[in-house]
Write a structure and sequence with these properties.
With about 270 residues, the protein is an alpha+beta fold. It has two domains: about 1-75 and about 200-270, Bordetella uptake gene, domain 1 (D-Maltodextrin-Binding Protein, domain 2, 3-Layer(aba) Sandwich); about 75-170, D-Maltodextrin-Binding Protein, domain 2, CATH 3.40.190. The protein has helices spanning about 1-10, 25-30, 45-55, 90-100, 115-125, 135-145, 160-165, 210-225, 225-235, 245-255, 260-270; strands at about 40-45, 65-75, 75-80, 105, 130-135, 150-155, 165-170, 200-205, 240. The protein has a five-stranded mixed β-sheet. Strands 1-8-2-9 form a four-stranded antiparallel β-sheet. The radius of gyration is 19 Å and the shape is globular. The mean pLDDT is about 90.
């Protein structure tokens, strides 16, 4: 949608190339070999900012990328099967506290927003979960529907299954979902957690500041168009706009604030 809107403004086609993998951070790797001329851009997920804690990189996410514009953030939902004995998030948490390490939950992969959010919950509440990563939302939903995992943390893949009565939504992330009134947020449960899955537009290191600003302005107009806002709403997302300076400040703050959590995840993965 953004590409179409930008193409209409500039009169130039934008080719969207999906490159999955590495907690949705593959575009950041590809940008390391791209020219800083504005012709190669990427989607920057929060997973990009966590890479340095989990693997040795030859580049620095903060120093070797250009931050152009913040766009939105994926929502979070924790679901169980409709016939699960857990009818509330509180019941799930209480069971996990009484049974350390026995609650197995699935996510869409290591270091994705849902995974990080669940481990943040565990850290704040002194719980221990058993994490089972899947390759994507489709595999994850099949796993929880078939009972291979007791719960699942996902962005939007659970929505049709909850609406069909096959899954039960226990809680959402930072904000509530209009289509599921009455479902508590993490803040409602006493967990003052922010958005873990923001994303925006990034480019290679060394882009001229005036070029960054020109691209930012084009994408800002594109993301504010009605069709893009409606597309976000279909996934219960909101526009979370950030200027280049704000996006960089967000990136720096995220890397600093998640240090303890990332180091815990790294030590867990080493065992």
């Amino acid at each position: 949608m953004l590409a179409d809107n930008v193409a209409q403004q500039t009169g130039q086609p934008l080719i969207v190339e999906n490159r999955p993998g590495v907690a949705s951070a593959m575009p950041a790797f590809l940008l390391q070999n791209a020219e800083p001329d504005g012709y190669t851009l990427g989607q920057g997920t929060s997973g990009v900012l966590r890479l340095g804690y989990m693997q040795r990189l030859k580049w620095d996410p903060l120093q070797d990328l250009s931050f152009i514009a913040g766009i939105s953030g994926y929502l979070l939902g924790v679901v169980v099967r409709a016939d699960s004995p857990f009818t509330s998030a509180t019941q799930l948490i209480d069971w996990a506290r009484a049974n350390p390490g026995r609650l197995n939950y699935g996510s869409t992969g290591v270091l994705t927003g849902p995974h990080v959010a669940m481990e943040d919950i565990a850290l704040r509440l002194s719980l221990r979960f058993n994490h089972v990563p899947y390759k994507g939302s489709a595999d994850l939903m099949q796993a929880v529907l078939s009972g291979h995992v007791m719960a699942a943390a996902d962005s939007s893949g659970f929505i049709p299954h909850v609406e069909a009565g096959k899954l039960r939504l226990l809680c959402t992330g930072e904000t509530s979902m209009a289509r599921f009134p009455g479902v508590p947020t993490l803040r409602d449960l006493g967990l003052p957690m922010g958005q873990k899955s923001r994303y925006g537009l990034i480019g290679p290191r060394g882009m001229d500041s005036q070029l960054v600003e020109r691209i930012h302005e084009v994408f800002k107009r594109a993301m504010e168009q009605t069709n893009h806002l409606e597309a976000l709403a279909r996934f219960d997302q909101q526009l979370i706009y950030m200027s280049p300076a704000d996006y960089r400040r967000f990136a720096v703050g995220t890397v600093a604030s998640e240090r303890v959590l990332m180091e815990r995840l790294a030590s867990t993965s080493d065992r």
